[in-house]
Amino acid sequence: MAPSYSYSKLSLVISLMVVTVAMTNLKADAQFLGLISINGVLFCSANGSVTGSPTPAFINATVQLQCVPGTVVSTSVTNGSGAFSFLLNPLQFLLSTLLGTCRLRVATPLTACNATLSPTGVLTSALQLSGNIIAGLVNITQLVPSGFHLVNNI
Known about the structure:
Elements: H1 2-31, E1 34-41, E2 62-68, E3 71-77, E4 83-88, H2 95-100, E5 103-106, E6 121-125, E7 127-135, E8 138-145, E9 149-152
Parallel strand pairs: 1-8
Antiparallel strand pairs: 1-4, 2-3, 2-5, 5-6, 6-9, 7-8
């Protein structure tokens, strides 16, 4: 009877060790959970930023994230303050790709907010790293536009 009791005890100890290792791995995986956040504010101007005079926000403008020219991977619409936001899964988007080849493009014509601005050009911007924040177990990588500029459509 003693040997089976000893095997039961050994099985219990091994099971506890396996559960402990599994839980440790889950916690380690949870620490690598993350998101990529792209945030910005768009103003009604030829470069999308505030000029010397009071510049209104570009409201209800469609902002696209393009990682291959002509291919939209995500879309956001500016709110009443001109703010837009994208939330991306880092398993689908490499940070190096976002910073190297992706661009923000304002699909809404500039004339929608100011009739004196170019009717044929679009605002576009590369992305730059703003920083990282930790929210609970989630690491959020923050990107912002590097600066919008007007590109004339041909």
